[in-house]
Amino acid sequence: MELNTSVVEAVLSNNWLKYCGTESNFPQGIEYTYLSNKKKMVKSVNGIEWENICLEESGDLTGYLAKNKPEIYNEN
């Protein structure tokens, strides 16, 4: 599968760490949890809640592709 160049450019130009370490400057309307240090972040990412989020989103993506983009879903 070949990625759309405008998507690649948008991802690469995004300042992913712009709000790192600042609790109050995160954009409004986005659900997030503020973790004050790396140890808490590692514990969170290794937790069951994060695993469940990843599984759910993976299922949502698979369902979307199967329904809306069968040519991509059936590629392999």
Which characteristics define this entry?
single chain; 76 residues; mainly alpha; 0% strand; extended
In short:
Helices cover 55% and strands 0% of the residues. By secondary structure, it is mainly alpha-helical.
SSE inventory with pairings:
Elements: H1 5-13, H2 38-45, H3 48-68, H4 70-73
What does this structure look like?
55% of the residues lie in helices and 0% in strands. With 76 residues, the protein is mainly alpha-helical. It has one domain (5-73). It is extended.
Q: What class, by secondary structure content?
A: mainly alpha
Order of helices and strands: HHHH
**What proportion strand?**
under 5%
In helices, the fraction of residues equals 55-70%
Separation of termini? 10 Å
Uncertain spans: none
Query: What profile does the largest beta sheet have?
Result: none
User: Quick one: how many beta strands?
Assistant: 0
What does the average pLDDT come to?
79
Q: Globular, elongated, flat, extended or rod-shaped: what is the shape?
A: extended
Number of domain units? 1
Radius of gyration: 17 Å
**Number of helix segments?**
4
